[in-house]
Write a structure and sequence with these properties.
The chain is of the alpha+beta class. Among the domains are: 107 residues, Alpha-D-Glucose-1,6-Bisphosphate, Chain A, domain 3 (3-Layer(aba) Sandwich), CATH 3.40.120; 128 residues, TATA-Binding Protein, CATH 3.30.310. 37% of the residues lie in helices and 27% in strands. The chain is built from ten helices and 17 strands. Strands 10, 11, 12, 13, 14, 15, 16 and 17 form an eight-stranded antiparallel β-sheet that branches. A hairpin with a 3-residue loop joins strand 16 and strand 17. About 3% of the residues have low confidence.
């Protein structure tokens, strides 16, 4: 009898937790106005101070910033964590892999894929302008909906002050930067609107015993799995500038046939708009925007973009793979991250050659 009563109590608690969506907003300062708007969605919304706030324009929310918040959210039965910096319209999501599972941090590529698919299903005239350091899987999604998408070489924070944003069409255009800044031009309150779309999707998913992580997996199932990684290396010292200048010159003028055990198939020089196939020697026009950058395609379905600026070298790695089932996500992501580490080591070797 006692055991049955306990089982019924536990089951009742589980059912109660699944009745509605619990959302935790985390930021440096309270978000009373935002929370009031989101609460109108008939979800429970609370605020929790972030342990480590962002410190610069280019700073982004990482797992380090959010680990204490995730611990609190798991302990108190929250379904969705949203970290925001409302000053610059930056946000990122923490979602459960399972309805009662642990939280994982979605990166800007994950968030942009989920959000874009939601908006395209509800906005017939939506356009997109994305940073060159944002997943090109978005292009497949927009193409399916016959919607326009443009890749921009430079989208620094704050987006609202950028010429591309100011001079863009007055209708609904989604801007996405690698600094976790997402703006929907044409909406008076872009942040609350975009978050409301995500929360309503999460609410619907929970009613089906799913989470936004399932939405992400669905996108990868439909369009193919990709893993992206942005890395930046400081080149403030003269010796560092010389080193990477040598790496880029080597790839431009006399590229090796392979990096490590992986064959290089093409070199795309964005500065002059050409793409050279190293296997055939054929040179064709590049489809990428003009920039002082190189993109190297490898035979193992990976590529990397090298984009130097005055202060740093930006690396943007992309790997393609096959996602068989939901559980493959973490394994594949870890494998691709290890591939990036090895690849970066091989790239550095080019600067050490005589």
């Amino acid at each position: 009898m006692i055991e049955n009563a306990i089982n019924e109590e536990v089951q009742g608690q589980i059912e109660k937790e699944r009745e509605g969506l619990k959302v935790l907003i985390t930021s440096e300062n309270p978000q009373d106005e935002l929370i009031a708007k989101l609460a109108n969605l008939e979800v429970e919304v609370q605020w929790h101070k972030i342990a480590e706030p962002l410190t610069s324009l280019e700073d982004t929310f990482t797992f380090r910033h959010l680990k204490p918040v995730f611990d609190y959210a798991e302990k108190n039965g929250f379904d969705l964590v949203i970290a925001v910096d409302s000053t610059y319209d930056k946000f990122t999501l923490g979602v459960r892999k399972l309805v009662t599972g642990n939280f994982i941090l979605l990166n800007i590529h994950h968030t942009s894929l989920i959000l874009s698919k939601l908006l395209l299903e509800n906005h017939g005239s939506l356009r997109c302008k994305k940073s060159i350091f944002i997943t090109d899987l978005l292009e497949k999604i927009f193409a399916k909906h016959e919607a326009e998408i443009t890749t921009i070489v430079n989208l620094p924070t704050p987006l609202k002050d950028h010429e591309t944003f100011i001079l863009s069409e007055p209708d609904e255009t989604l801007f996405i930067s690698e600094n976790q800044e997402i703006l929907l031009k044409g909406q008076n309150d872009s942040l609350s609107y975009l978050l409301s779309r995500l929360i309503m999707s999460a609410k619907k998913a929970k009613s089906e015993d799913k989470t936004l992580f399932d939405s992400l997996i669905g996108i990868y199932t439909d369009y193919g799995f990709q893993r992206e990684k942005n890395l930046a290396v400081s080149i403030e010292e003269p010796s560092q500038k010389v080193f990477f200048k040598k790496v880029i010159a080597r790839l431009k003028r006399k590229p090796p046939m392979s990096l490590g055990m992986t064959e290089i198939t093409s070199i795309e020089d964005l500065s002059n708009g050409t793409l050279k196939n190293l296997l055939s020697g054929r040179i064709v026009p590049s489809k990428s925007p003009i920039a002082n950058a190189l993109q190297v395609q490898l035979s193992n379905n990976s590529r990397f973009l090298i984009f130097p600026t005055e202060q740093k070298i930006n690396f943007f790695f992309t790997s393609h793979g096959k996602l068989i089932k939901k559980d493959d996500f973490t394994t594949l992501s870890q494998q691709f991250d290890q591939r990036v580490v090895k690849l970066l080591s091989e790239i550095n070797r080019l600067g050490l050659e005589n």
